[in-house]
Amino acid sequence: MSYTALPVISVSNVTILQENNVVLRDLNFEIKKSEFVYLIGKTGSGKSSLLKTLYADLPLLTGEIEVAGFNLRKLKKSKVPYLRRKIGIIFQDFQLLTDRNINDNLLFVLKATGWNNKAKIKQRITEVLIQVGLGSVGNKYPHQLSGGEQQRICVARALLNEPQVMIADEPTGNLDPEVADEIMRLFIDINRSGMTVLMATHNHDFLQKFPARVLKCEKGELKEVKN
User: What are the angstrom distances between the C-alpha of 159 and each of 8, 36, 78?
Assistant: First the structure.
């Protein structure tokens, strides 16, 4: 089997707990390189808990998970930052640093993940801003941008370290429908460039407009849905 055919995410016999309550049980699925996968389900069905387990924000208590080459069962806390460099994580609320401009928001991430060459830092920030269609906003502050623009900056931030997989938890939940569609098209473009994308969403219009593989959290189980 070639490397490119290997799964970026592999989940075997996993049960997800939230505050000692089982929210999802007996999870078994794989997501391969360059796949786009929707994660759907009602509020409280376990979507966010599953995503948090995949990026090691919640502990893995049963079964086996491998993400971007990291075995989460064996992952020490000190190694979690190395896992996170391989994962681009995007939330519903933007979590941008409001006291600094966009360039400095991105600089903060690069410095925190070990970048120290000023020329390469500047080049990478320029590259990701252009990639999300906001090449000229580096000197602006988050409050000077629209909600859609702020979410594009969050996508740029997630792309900085060229991750193997993008995990997005309701990334369009706070945006109006037209802007949400624009952000969704950005994710599609990123996916077409070879990035694996796993996106939790309540927006079922996306499933029709932008068809892709669908996993559904329902009654404690994760099921593949024919779209």
Answer: 16, 16, 22
The closest of 186, 124, 179 to 157, measured between CA atoms, is: 124
Alpha-carbon gap, residue 131 to 124, rounded angstroms: 10
User: Do the Cβ atoms of 186 and 161 come closer than 8 Å?
Assistant: no
Q: Which long-range contacts (CB under 8 A, 24 or more apart) does 175-181 make?
A: 175/147, 175/148, 175/151, 177/205, 179/146, 179/147, 179/148, 181/209
Is the separation of the CB atoms in 15 and 61 below 8 Å? yes
pLDDT tens-digit series, residues 44-99? 899 999 999 999 999 998 999 999 999 999 999 999 989 999 999 998 888 899 99
DSSP code, position 21: E
Q: How much is the pTM?
A: 0.93
Q: Which residues contact 87 (CB under 8 A, 6 or more apart)?
A: 54, 55, 67, 68, 163, 164, 165, 166, 167
> In this structure, which amino acid lies at residue 184?
M
According to DSSP H, which parts of 40-88 are helical?
47-54, 80-85
**Whether the Cβ atoms of residue 27 and residue 50 lie closer than 8 Å to each other:** yes
What span, in angstroms and rounded, lies between the C-alpha atoms of 223 and 221? 6
Looking at 19-95, which runs of residues are DSSP E strands? 21-32, 36-40, 64-67, 70-71, 87-90
Among residues 17, 25, 70, 53, which one has the least CA distance to residue 169? 53
Given a contact cutoff of 8 angstroms between Cβ atoms, the answer to whether 200 and 222 are in contact is no
